[in-house]
Amino acid sequence: MDGVEVIISLVGFFIAIYLISRVAHFFNNVKNKMNDIEKKLDDLIAFNEKQTNNNDKST
Q1: Looking at the whole model, is its pTM more than 0.70?
Q2: What are phi and psi of 58, to 5 degrees?
Q3: Which of 2, 13, 52, 57 suits 28 as a labelling partner, its CA being 20 to 30 A distant?
Q4: Share of the chain residues as helix, strand and coil, in percent rounded to the nearest 5
Q5: Rounded distance, CA 34 to CA 55, Å?
Q6: What are 7-54's pLDDT values in tens digits?
């Protein structure tokens, strides 16, 4: 291999590493957002159950 091929190979290698890193960050962000959504849904379900229990007690 001559010098140009080595440089092209190194650049390709670093681009591949960068792309893998970006995909990993994307999936990590998706996981965090899904956890936030799940927590909000749990809060809504708890609130709804509380409201339902209050309505049952008042009737």
Answers
A1: no
A2: -80, -15
A3: 13
A4: 95, 0, 5
A5: 31
A6: 999 999 999 999 999 999 999 999 999 999 999 999 999 999 888 887
